[in-house]
Amino acid sequence: MSFKQITQIAGSAMSAQTVRLNTIASNLANAQSAAATPETTYHARKPVFAALAAQAGLGEQQLSGSRVQVLDVVESQEPLRKAYEPENPLANAQGEVYYPNVNPVAEMTDMLSASRAFETNVEVLSRVKSMQNALLRLGEA
Length: 141
Hints:
The structure is a single chain. This protein has two helices and four strands, in the order αββββα. The chain has helices at residues 3-29, 104-138; strands at 45-58, 61-75, 81-84, 96-99. A two-stranded antiparallel sheet has the order 1-2. A two-stranded antiparallel ribbon has the order 3-4. The two termini are 26 Å apart.
């Protein structure tokens, strides 16, 4: 596998983790936003990823790698939270207010996972750069 392919794979993973972190931030920012109806309530969003396999032939040996592609960002189908708050100005005739289906604990866990995956890919790019530099130094001796 070439350095270019490794860089493309790590770069696509970093882009995917950026989308993941942005959706988590959006979910957390809207976690406590109330609405009068289920239709107008914020629904948690989740990115959908796919692996794009790429093959490179080197004689008899086949090496493969997969880049990451963000297919879509979909709304969660989990049920919304409903609360009885008759004093809330957004309450409906029954005194109910709807809150998003965002679980802050799960979102924070997902955020840690995404940030660590991002950091891992930054480390991969750093190692590729140091290997390229070492390769260039071989010609100096």
